[in-house]
Design the sequence.
């Protein structure tokens, strides 16, 4: 099977007048046997990586049964050569290929023809809360959007990356469930709760988290007697509810929910205690105003 | 959570209760469970089973790691990947909790710096680079990307517009133009593959327009990388982006 070779990939780029990039280090991984080709290789002696990926030494990758070689991992942790970072990524992919891809080849071949996920997930970009890890979603199961503080802007805010993904998932993939997952100690929610009233237009973080302003308002009125950390926790959950309400501002989402073709759920992952709460929007055709409480059903708490 | 049968048997034990209202409710629950198609997909069950598996096999087995992560995160990567259900980097590159701050959007796109638009992406870059101080940004494209296909085929195919998708994938227009100029004689599938890779390069260039990324690159505290996951053939390519600064003059 013809594969784009690294040298031609680099050459295409170098001949371009559109992009000012002038060099690539390219590592291509072909098949189950390791084969690397290095073009335009340059060691940058002034560049130092930090201690790479030390958490890896403490963790088994998902789906594997063999133990990682501790000695090899210690050497990785000690090395400051930037190339070890590439080597590590390469080995991770090859392990995935060997233990998941090739062992489930028929399934992956089917997936290559098309995806039919039953879930759309909206989760935070936080490194600790990937839904593939905490809820075990396997390839093909969940179409996933991850942004700061797992926010869903309302329909009237206009086009954005989040609602482009909603449009694709609901109207094209026709997912049956949307799950918005909030989490504990969310930096984005903390930024929202910490904001002064005047908006600092130079900060993207502030411009984005303002999407959650109604959640902040509700929290301030309902939980002002609590300490700041507890207020943030309250807002983390309040914000999920407001995102669910914002989902219903999209006409094509509300129509499907009303017909029972689409279910909308909220979730909250607490990584301090390792608990998960889940609730489902109870849609009965009522008029969901901006300030109305969210009617829910099937609330579960798992610990 | 036990099987359907176990749940029904468990409920039957309460039928001897003297409270008529409770008995009626339990009978209704049992009927509901008995009428259920065991093959019907139950999203709640799916979520619960996934979470239980994580808690038992990962969280409870590594208390020190998760205690540390509860206090904070120090990811070394900011990753941009597509929302496609088949390409989660936690699977293909085995990212563990704490390793990668991860943005997922249609066609893994990074728009150029714009104070008025795309604050979602801007917020993620600002947070990852300025607050978390990640050392690496990795943009991962993939095969058979629906977003890239939409970019390459619309509006030329006269299909009905998608209000939000079309506005979003327009970010990739420079990649489309370049691919059509160089590979316009190839079949659509090949052009899409070229565009999937060209779009990654475009996103890397766009990353460079963010002030905090520029500073990180200038101080050599940040590396930019592009990846391409081909799930048809089971392959992965990785490139490093090295912008150059040429000293022009001093006075």
Sequence:
């Amino acid at each position: 099977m013809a594969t784009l070779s690294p040298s031609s990939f680099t050459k295409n780029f170098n001949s371009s007048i559109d992009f000012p990039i002038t060099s690539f280090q390219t590592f291509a991984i072909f098949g189950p046997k390791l084969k690397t080709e290095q073009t335009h290789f340059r060691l940058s002696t002034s560049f130092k990586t930090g201690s790479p990926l030390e958490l890896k030494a403490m963790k088994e990758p998902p789906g594997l049964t063999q133990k990682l070689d501790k000695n090899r991992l210690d050497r990785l942790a000690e090395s400051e050569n930037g190339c070890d970072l590439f080597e590590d990524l390469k080995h991770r992919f090859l392990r995935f290929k060997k233990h998941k891809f090739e062992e489930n080849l028929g399934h992956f071949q089917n997936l290559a023809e098309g995806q039919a996920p039953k879930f759309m997930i909206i989760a935070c970009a936080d490194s600790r809360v990937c839904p593939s890890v905490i809820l075990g979603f396997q390839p093909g199961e969940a179409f996933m959007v991850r942004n700061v503080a797992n926010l869903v802007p309302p329909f009237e805010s206009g086009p954005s990356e989040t609602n482009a993904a909603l449009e694709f998932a609901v109207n094209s993939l026709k997912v049956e469930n949307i799950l918005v997952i909030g989490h504990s100690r969310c930096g984005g929610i903390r930024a929202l709760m910490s904001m002064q009233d005047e908006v600092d237009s130079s900060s993207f973080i502030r411009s984005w988290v303002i999407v959650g302003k109604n959640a902040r308002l509700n929290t301030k009125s309902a939980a002002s007697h609590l300490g700041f950390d507890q207020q943030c926790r309250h807002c983390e959950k309040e914000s999920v509810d407001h995102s669910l309400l914002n989902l219903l501002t999209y006409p094509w989402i509300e129509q499907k929910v009303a017909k029972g073709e689409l279910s909308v759920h909220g979730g909250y992952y607490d990584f301090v205690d390792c608990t998960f709460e889940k609730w489902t929007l109870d849609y009965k055709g009522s008029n969901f105003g901006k300030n109305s409480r969210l009617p829910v059903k099937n609330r579960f708490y798992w610990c | 959570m036990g099987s359907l049968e176990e749940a029904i048997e468990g409920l039957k034990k309460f039928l001897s209760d003297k409270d008529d209202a409770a008995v009626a409710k339990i009978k209704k629950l049992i009927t509901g469970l008995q009428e259920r198609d065991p093959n019907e997909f139950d999203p709640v069950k799916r979520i619960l089973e996934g979470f239980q598996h994580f808690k038992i096999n990962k969280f409870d087995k590594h208390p020190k790691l998760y205690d540390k992560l509860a206090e904070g995160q120090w990811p070394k990567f900011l990753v941009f990947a597509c929302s496609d259900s088949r390409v989660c980097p936690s699977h293909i590159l085995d990212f563990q909790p704490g390793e990668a701050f991860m943005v997922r959007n249609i066609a893994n796109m990074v728009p150029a710096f714009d104070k008025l638009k795309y604050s979602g992406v801007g917020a993620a870059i600002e947070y990852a680079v300025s607050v978390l101080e990640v050392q690496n940004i990795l943009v991962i494209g993939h095969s058979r990307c629906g977003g890239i296909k939409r970019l390459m085929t619309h509006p030329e195919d006269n299909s009905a517009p998608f209000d939000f998708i079309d506005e979003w994938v327009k970010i990739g227009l420079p990649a489309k133009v370049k691919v059509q100029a160089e590979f316009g004689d190839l079949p659509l599938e090949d052009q899409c593959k070229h565009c999937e890779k060209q779009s990654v390069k475009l996103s890397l260039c766009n990353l460079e327009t963010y002030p905090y990324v520029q500073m990180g690159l200038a101080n050599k505290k940040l590396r930019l990388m592009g990846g391409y996951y081909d799930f048809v053939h089971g392959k992965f390519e990785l490139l490093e982006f090295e912008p150059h600064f040429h000293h022009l003059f001093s006075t």
About this structure: The CA atoms of residues 187 and 193 of chain B lie 10 Å apart.
